[in-house]
Amino acid sequence: MDIEFVRSRFIKHFDGLTGNIYHSPGRINLIGEHTDYNGGFVFPGAVTQGVMAEVRPNGTDTVIAYSIDLKDKVEFKVNDPKGPSAQWARFIYGMVQEFLLLGVDVKGFNVAFAGDVPLGAGMSSSAALESCFGCALNDLFAGNKISKWDIVLAGQATEHKYIGCNCGIMDQFASVFGQAGKLMRLDCNTREFEYFPFNPQGYRLVLLNSCVKHELAGSPYNDRRKSCENVAKAVQKRHPERVIDTLRDCTWDDLQEVKADVSAEDIQRATFVLGEKDRVLAVCDALVKGDYEEVGKQMYLTHQGLSKDYEVSCEELDFLNDIAKANGVTGSRIMGGGFGGCTINLVKDELYDTFIADAKKKFAEKYGHEPKVIDVVIGDGSRKIC
């Protein structure tokens, strides 16, 4: 993201004065899918792509926001009970409201912002936007006294209350807490987290965006969550002496024990979740040792589980995964909820060009368009730039 470009737009659309510039990143998740609502681990990292905003208090009670990408300007009062109707502006409005609830005396400000997080790639551009404004509001109106976790929770509350998306905390967490060259293992049950080194010398991390999204009948995510809850409840019923809140609290022996108590589909879903819990921990150990071949092996196992046990893959993503295997790619899997979107691939440098060329060619021949290639570098979290 070009600082001078954002600054030029800010100067053009406001009073010619400059403000402070803030940046918050999007994120990838190396491994750990559909584990958040099961009380398990996720393993995200911030990326270098993100949202950049120039912000300056304007001495009024009005926020004047300009979206450089959309070429759209919106105004709203800080204490407006309803807020703006434009969806993009409601992210800003929501963060203002959440900071007011934290006791911060937010005043009016001018802002121009832009982003380079690829849309539709599952890299959480919305969390980047929320975290960027959280960083700015904290600096300008709270003297940086609001904790990083409060910024994360303000972003999540913005999604829940002002956008209508009942998200978890992984996206905002990665955007706020990210560090260059490090991934983070987050315990979604306790919010404890730990940094792990990610400096894959001789490898590159790349996303291939299938540019497809399949809308399945019914509520596929809710159905899978219900399956997980069914198994946890069955284990709790057999073991009243234990506290079984989620599948996080269950073992492989528990799963065998309740096979007759729940449906085969429920067991199938739980098999993936327990396996994914083990895979996240295996990847952590591998990264400490610098064993990227083991990381890649676990990525392929995750894809297989998401495709066969959890059944959230689709033909296009399985096809991209097969191409990765055929090209000797170290690791490849679906990234995100599934039913479309991206694969995330760990590729040796010497295989990169051949793999990308082959994936573009074969995918276009089969589906009529090339996948979008998004190179990934693990970067820093939310911060003031100048």
Task: Name the features.
alpha+beta, globular, 13 strands, 386 residues, 4-stranded antiparallel β-sheet, 6-stranded mixed β-sheet
What does it look like?
By secondary structure, this protein is α+β, with helices and mostly antiparallel strands. The protein has helices at residues 3-13, 87-101, 125-141, 148-163, 170-177, 220-238, 252-257, 264-289, 292-309, 315-326, 349-367; strands spanning 20-29, 41-42, 44-57, 62-67, 72-77, 109-115, 182-187, 193-197, 203-213, 331-335, 340-348, 372-376, 383-384. A six-stranded mixed beta sheet has the order 5-4-6-3-1-13, with helices on both faces. A four-stranded antiparallel beta sheet has the order 10-11-9-12. A three-stranded antiparallel beta sheet has the order 2-7-8, with helices on one face. α2 (87-101) crosses α3 (125-141) and α8 (264-289) packs antiparallel against α9. The radius of gyration is 22 Å and the shape is globular.
Strand content: 15-25%
The class by helix and strand makeup works out as: alpha+beta
Query: What's the helix-strand series?
Result: HEEEEEHEHHHEEEHHHHHEEHEE
- Terminal-residue CA separation: 14 Å
Number of strands: 13
- Taken from the alpha-carbon principal axes, the silhouette is globular
* Spatial strand arrangement across the major sheet: 5-4-6-3-1-13
Low-confidence stretches: none
Mean pLDDT: 95
Percent of residues in helices comes to 40-55%
Computed CA radius of gyration, to the nearest angstrom: 22 Å
Largest sheet: 6 strands, mixed
Q: Helical stretch count?
A: 11
